[in-house]
Each structure stands twice: as structure tokens, then as C-alpha cells.
Amino acid sequence: MEQTILSGDERREKLLALLLRSDEPLSGGKIGDIYHVSRQVVVQDIALLRSKGHSIVSTPRGYMYEKDAGNQNCRRIVKVCHTDDQAEEELSTIVDFGGIVLDVMVNHRTYGKVTAPLNIKSRRDIRKFVEDLKQSKSSLLSNTTSGYHFHTIEAESEDILDEIEEALKEKHFLVDFLDYETTFKQ
């Protein structure tokens, strides 16, 4: 059976339709298999779709189209610092107050701003994240910056974000932004 070779635009159009129909995350590998391209091409396609305003989120299990992208949730970037052993407690503090940890970002002096999606919404997501780290040879991104890192947090209201910040402060995880880091705040 002969494969139909799609142009990049055609492939992205079909990919977008696939994501819109799917109720479950689709891994980059699975998407690549469907369209006979590498995972790296899928990553590039997702980036191009996002640049056109499509709300596609990355989860630990794959990509999803954020169907309720029109919601009016509030977002805030916080700067935190902790040890590897405290990562689960930090994430639990955020989700227990109703927050979603959208990403993690470090500001490395050599590599610059490095961001990775997390989309952690529950303690179940936290357990999976921690387990995935234990099973891999990887470590927390924040290890590249002595534990200092940023999270974009989403919640239903500014009050909830304030409560999250206060709880992180009480646990001594919250750190003040340096003067040159104010551009990271939203």
C-alpha cells in the first residue's frame, strides 16, 4: 500500500482536526506514526499550530487541544527554590489549593531561558511525574540552576493564586524575583 505524502500545511490541518476530535492525549510518537513523520516533525508542527493561536497543551501522556481555552482562569509566574526531595511537596501545595502547574522554567546563565511543559493538575499527576523521574536517568530541570526555578500557575481566581503564593512562602519555597527577572512576571 502506497503512502500519501502530505505537504506540511496539509499534515498540520489533519493533525489539528485529529486533536480536536480526540478526548485523550496523543503522544508525539503515535502522531508521527499516523502521518509517517518523526516525533521532531510533530513537535515542530505543534509549535507552528500554537503560533497560529491554537491552544494545544502538552501533558505527560501526549498532546491535547484545550477545548475550554476560552476560560478566564488567571495565571501567574512564581519563583521558587527547593531540594529534589521537596519537589513533590511544592507541587502538592499548588494543586491542593486548586492551582495547575502549567510549566517549569529556569533562567540559565549559559543556555538562557529553558521551559518545559508540565500541566500538573492533581496529586495523581504529581505521582506520575515523580515516578517518571525515578525511572529515568533524568533529574529536575531546576538542578541546572541550584534549585531556583519558575512555574506558570493557573487558577480560577487571583485570590486562589494569592493563597498558593502564601502557602509556598510559609514553606520557604517562594523566592523574590531579582531585578533583571521582572520580565518573567506576567
From TrEMBL:
InterPro entries (UniProt xref): 3H_dom_sf, 3H_domain, HTH_11, NadR, WH-like_DNA-bd_sf, WH_DNA-bd_sf
The keyword Metal-binding belongs to this UniProt entry's keyword annotation: yes
Coiled coil spans: none
Keywords from the named record: Metal-binding, Nickel
GO MF, one annotated term: metal ion binding
Keyword Metal-binding among record annotations: yes
Helix-turn-helix type domain ranges (all copies): 11-63
Pfam families for this protein: 3H, HTH_11
Residue positions binding Ni(2+): H82, E90, H149, H151
3H domain segment(s): 78-174
Protein name: Transcription repressor NadR
